[in-house]
What we know:
It is built from nine helices and 17 strands. The chain is an alpha/beta fold. It folds into two domains: 116 residues, Immunoglobulin-like; 231 residues, Zn-dependent exopeptidases (Aminopeptidase, 3-Layer(aba) Sandwich). The termini are far apart. Bound molecules: zinc ion. Zinc ion binds next to loops.
Amino acid sequence: MKSRRDIKGTIIFSAIWVLIFIAIxxxxxxxxxxxxxxxxxxxxxxxxxxxxTRVVINLSGxxxxxxxxxxRPDRLYFDLKGSILKHDLQKNxxxxxxxxxxxxxxxxxxxxxxxxLDLDKMQxxxxxxxxxxxxxxIDIYGKIQTSSWKKKIVLDPGHGGHDPGAIGPKxxxxxxxxxxxxxxxxxILAQDRSLEVFLTRETDIFIPLxxxxxxxxxxxxxxxxxxxxxxxxxxETKGVETYLLNWTNDEEAMKVAARENAISLKxxxxxxxxxxxxxxxxxxxxxxxxxxxxxxxxxxxxxxMVNGLNKSYSHIVDLGVxxxxxxxxxxxxMPSVLVEVSFISNPLEEKLLAQDSYRVxxxxxxxxxxxxxxxxxxxxxxVAKNGxxxxx
Length: 392
Ligand SMILES: [Zn+2]
C-alpha cells in the first residue's frame, strides 16, 4: 500500500507529465493517407541565409508529428509518427550557419522518425505543411535584421524550367511572359534609388515554391510580389486580379490557387476546411498588420493595373482583389501579393500577353501601384531619396 506521501508524489508527478504533454504540440501534416504503407521520410533539404534558414522534410504521405524545443543543448525535434526513413536518406546534415548547427534524422522507434535540429542561436521558428509532395517546412529565424535605408522588393516570376505554368491556345508559355514582365518591372522600380529590387529568378530555371518565399525572407524584403498569368477551362474568361494569402470560400479563387500550388481542387478545398492545421501557420498572419498591409498593397496594384491598361486597351475586366491559400505566400514575413496579369487561356488576352507593348504597360502600372504603396508607408519608414533616413 502506498503511503500518503507516495500518493501525493504520484499526483504531482502525473500533473507534471500532463503539463508536459500540453506543452508539446501534436499536429498532423494535412496530406492524405496514400496507402496502408508506412509514411516514408524521403528527403531533407535546407536553404541557408545570414539570418534565416528554411528546412524542408519531404514525406510520402500523411504523418502525425510532435514537435518540441529542448535545452542544453538547445535543439528542436520533430517526431513523425507511423514513419520510416528512406534507406539512402542523408541522416546527418551539417549546416553551421550560426542559427543551426546540424539537422539529424533517425529511426527513433519502429514507427517513429525523429528529426532533430541542433540549434546555435535561434530567435524564433515556424512550422508549415504543404502537399504534393507532402512536406513539412520549418522556418528558423536568427537575429532580427537591421534595416537598411533602402526598401527591398522581391519580385517572383512564377514557374520556370520544366514547369511552363499555363499554356495559351497559341502555345504561349506563362513562365516566359511573367519572367519578361518581372524583368521590365525590376528595371522600372530600380530607377528609384530608395528601392532595391531582387528577382527570385532572372532566367528560365525551376525554383520550388517554398524556396521563393525563403528568398524574400532571407533578403529581409519589405514587399513580395509573385507574378503569374491566369488560365481557365472556359476560353472566354478574361481579366486581371490580385490575390493575398487567406482562407476563401470562393470556388474560382480556390481553382486559381490549386493550379498555382500544383495540387488538385479537392485537396485545395480540404485545405480550406482543415483550418486547425493551417492555423499554426496563419495565426501570426492575423496577429500583426501584415494582412492589412497586403490588402493595401493588393488594392493599389490592382487599381493601377486596371487604370493603366484601360488607357490603351478596351474591355479590360477588373476581377478585383481576392484571397486564397497560395503556397508561394506561406511564411512570407512581409506584405505579399500574387498578381494574375491576364488570362493566357483567353485567345484575345494571349495575343496581348505576347505583345511587348502590353507587357510594358503591365510593368509600368504595377510599378506605379508599388510606388504609391511605398510612399504611403508610415513616416518612420520613409527614407529620403538622398540616402539618409529622415526618421528621428
Ligand atoms: Zn502561375
